[in-house]
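Sequence in, structure out. First:
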Amino acid sequence: MLKYIARRLILAVPLIFGIVTATFFLAHLAPGDPVDLYLQPQRQVDPAVIERVRQERGLDQPLHIQYVNWLSSSARGDFGESFLLHRPVRDVLAETVPYTLLLILAALLVDALLGISLGVVSAVKRGTKLDRAVTLGSLVLYAMPGFWLALMLILVFSVQLGWFPTSQATSLDYASLSTLGKLLDRLWHLVLPVTVLGVAGAAATARYMRGRLLDVLGEEYITAARARGFRGWTIVRRHALKNAMIPIITIYGMSLPLMLGGATIVETIFAWPGMGRLTVDAVLGRDYPVILATTMVAAVLTVLGSLLADIGYAAVDPRVSYDGSRR
């Protein structure tokens, strides 16, 4: 297994390299000069100061030289300094990435618990009112735009009812709270963002789980199990569920890029201090070092998600070996 993981990670290096290279040139070819925002264009600035800042940031050099310099420093773990925040990008990522991971992992947990449960119930109760209700609800939630759902949740549960905060990851008095109080406060702020990310994913998972479980329940070995006297939930729990879960694991691994994209919208709406919101601000401010660093982190997380999906697939299905063949 270790050889398989090492091989996958080595093969992922060219992919990540290609992604960040394309991002580098696309970001620099976009119209606009980051120095204009860096120096606050509403003020009169001496042209000599502008040129000095461009030299300090390396923006006066040809594009291919900038690329080589950035690649060399990134290989050493130095992503430069943010144009907007005036801080090392590495420090900014160390603060924001944990918030994004917390949001995504919590959303995946909600997605798994809610989506798989509803999918199993819908399949077992096929053709009933409950099945139709779950199917209709899943279609509505899946088709609902994430930003619209986020705004509606804020309007109802934050503005009108006052149950949950509208933004940020902690309250103003977070530092003065006890350990338990800090945990509850963080969970309180997580509810609405996680609901937006997790519910949409759960709707898709429920639909897929229902269809997959119905396929498994039609297999011959399930018919044989019924002939031996097994019924209802016993068949689902002991025979069908594990086989139905095999492709679901792959889906969860590949859903990480979608979660990262959704987190960008959610973090922006809820002012969540994560990597997605940081990326949006960097794009609007033409903050090249932050754009490139967040793109690299997102690419690495996507590759790791795919790798974990493959490992989980092989762990659940004993017929699959780590060299990609079936035993």
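Second:
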Amino acid sequence: MEPLEIRPYGDPVLRAKGEPVRAFGEPVRALADRMLAAMRAARGIGLAAPQVGLSLQLFVVDTGHDPEPLELDGRPVADPRSVMPLVLANAEVTVLPGEEERMEEGCLSFPGIRGDVARVERVSVAFRDADGQPRTLVASGLLARCILHEHDHCQGVLFIDRMVPAHRLRVEPKVRRLLRETQASRR
């Protein structure tokens, strides 16, 4: 199985809102496996379908190394490794009451570019798994941040759009250079 190519900033698919996933089962499982392979090869913890050139509301996450407990389908999951990786299709994210936390983020579509992003600490997510089964997830910490980051990708929103202004200004020259390189490679 050959990993998918991760699209760099400047590829128009990254700014398009993804279409809902309509067909589930083996095609989605196979795509998710390929996305996970690409994500792991790039040493990431999440990857959205637009990042591999597919305008779909689909993303994968694997934060199994993070000790934060979570709830899946209303039941506590003490060991996140037991449910990772997760495949989330057609996710609907609800922000839960709590604090916002500022934390440095990176993105596989922005190699070498990192900056602080403020995000809420807890979310609830209604989604469909690879087989199309409706699921719910309550997450906090790194998993919540990863879900918000990947869900944004499915909406055409990028982490640089949410970066705190001082960090956005600091990385702007790198972002412009990446955009020029991407545009030059598309000619």
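Remark: The longest strand covers residues 86-95.
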